[in-house]
Amino acid sequence: MPLPVASKPEDVGIDSEKLEAVFARAQRDVDDGTLQGCQVAVARGGVLAGFRCFGKAAIKGELQPVTEDTLYSIFSSTKAIVAAAVWTLFEDGLLRLDEKVAEIIPEFGTNGKEVITVEQTMLHIGGFPMAPFRPDDWQDRETRLARFAKWRLNFEPGSQFMYHATTAHWVLAEIIERRTGKDFRAFIRQRILDPMGLDQLYVGLPESEDGRVADVLHMTPPVPPPGGWGEVTPDAILSFNIPAVRRVGVPGGGGIARAADLAMFYQPLINGGLTHDGRRIMKAETIDFATTVRTTARHVDQIHSLPVNRALAVVVAGGDGNAHLRGFGHNTSARAFGHGGAGGQIGWGDPESGISLGYTTNGFLDLEAYGRRNLALSSLAGACRI
Asked: Is residue 32 in a domain?
């Protein structure tokens, strides 16, 4: 299904010249050799205002031009997609924030983890960020459950924030399956992606689409992951080039999409739960509930030592002057929310401006380099409104 596109950016309140500045910044990284290629998209009013592709991508080892059909691994930008599916469980009365995870998944209730709540899990304050979970374990549900039972706490639940790179979202995937009776990938497709018209966004890639996915590569020598990102090793990143890993749909980082799909995912969520043609994805009250900041001043990140401003598995820009350090640039409202990816992928939406941004690339750089790019692209996109 083709995504809806504005006849011209001004039709949805986007300034064409300012939009071209977003594209020019994305192009710069390709022109100077920082990246092989990328995609960027800006949406508003439920439709795409612009979608542009740059450079080349290696697909199955063969370098070819990036097109609107090229797919990218979006890493932790996947977290917001899985989160949206969990939000619908709250809306449908199938889940409560105060429930203990172990009451839903008995295998999880060992080694002090029996006190962890659904809310703590979604806020990355559950206390099990460094739980061992090899990629070899991802593909088998029984093996995953056995791992849940072995996991131990790294800190007292609720006492601090530490990024749970994949562990928390594996728990959320299992909660989806226990409460719906459906495979988490099928539920996300049926409840979120298909109703949004996003048939090119995948959590669990079909074999037929392997020939469209850009190979992940390190553009600079890989560096050790920062605190709390222990699972995001160079080898783990490259494992997403393996077709069997793409099939898994790792809920904390295995999504695959185009920049356009990532931008359009946020449009219903910042427009009261409705698509451009009036399909309801979820209630506006559910989105407000899910995007309310629930972490406190003591929950700070390990990189900037700033309050993390976490809602239910998404980051919120906030009005404390630090939104740019949370991945939202200088021109979004305090209510903007989203989630970036480990390779500098960008996905956010702003309920006040109506703008959403998607950015995809396969080239991994150091944190400082992609932080600068994120700041520039997000700031330029946030300023696009007429």
From this structure: yes
User: Coil, strand, or helix at residue 25?
Assistant: helix
Joined together, the tokens standing for residue 292 give: 């309310």
**Total count of domains within the chain:** 1
For residue 313, the domain's CATH number is 3.40.710.10
Say whether pTM exceeds 0.85: yes
Distance, CA of 199 to CA of 192 (rounded, Å): 10
In a domain, 159, yes or no: no
Tokens of 268: 């219903």
Asked if residue 133 is part of any domain, the answer here is: no
Query: Do 92 and 128 contact (CB within 8 A), yes or no?
Result: no
DSSP E strand boundaries for 267-331: 315-316
Residue range of the domain that includes 210: 9-83+185-382
Residue 250 clears pLDDT 90, i.e. is over it: yes
- The DSSP line for 115-131 is G-BHHHHHTT-SS-TT-
Residue 127 has pLDDT above 70, yes or no: yes
Distance CA 19, CA 181 (A): 44
174 sits in which H/E element: helix 167-180
Can you read off the two tokens belonging to residue 165?
Answer: 């790179």
Report the C-alpha gap between 26 and 304 in whole angstroms: 25
Quick check: is 364 in a domain?
yes
Which candidate, 126, 124, 122, 128, places its Cα nearest to that of 97?
122
Separation CA 6–CA 317 (nearest Å):
27
For residue 169, which amino acid is it? H
Contacts of 102 (CB under 8 A, 6+ apart): 108, 109, 113, 114, 116
Collapsing DSSP to helix, strand or coil, 57 comes out as strand
For residue 299, what are the CA distances in angstroms to 126, 161, 294?
Answer: 12, 5, 10
User: Residue type at 97?
Assistant: L
Whole-number Cα distances in Å, 265 to 200, 257, 307: 11, 10, 26
H-run or E-run covering 288: helix 284-290
d(CA 340, CA 347): 6
CA separation for the pair 142, 107 (Å, rounded): 10
Instruction: For 211-239, write each residue's pLDDT tens digit.
Output: 999 999 988 887 765 555 556 677 778 88
363 pLDDT above the threshold of 60: yes
Scored b (16 or more CB within 10 A) or e, 161-181 reads bbbbbbbbbbbbbbbbbebbe
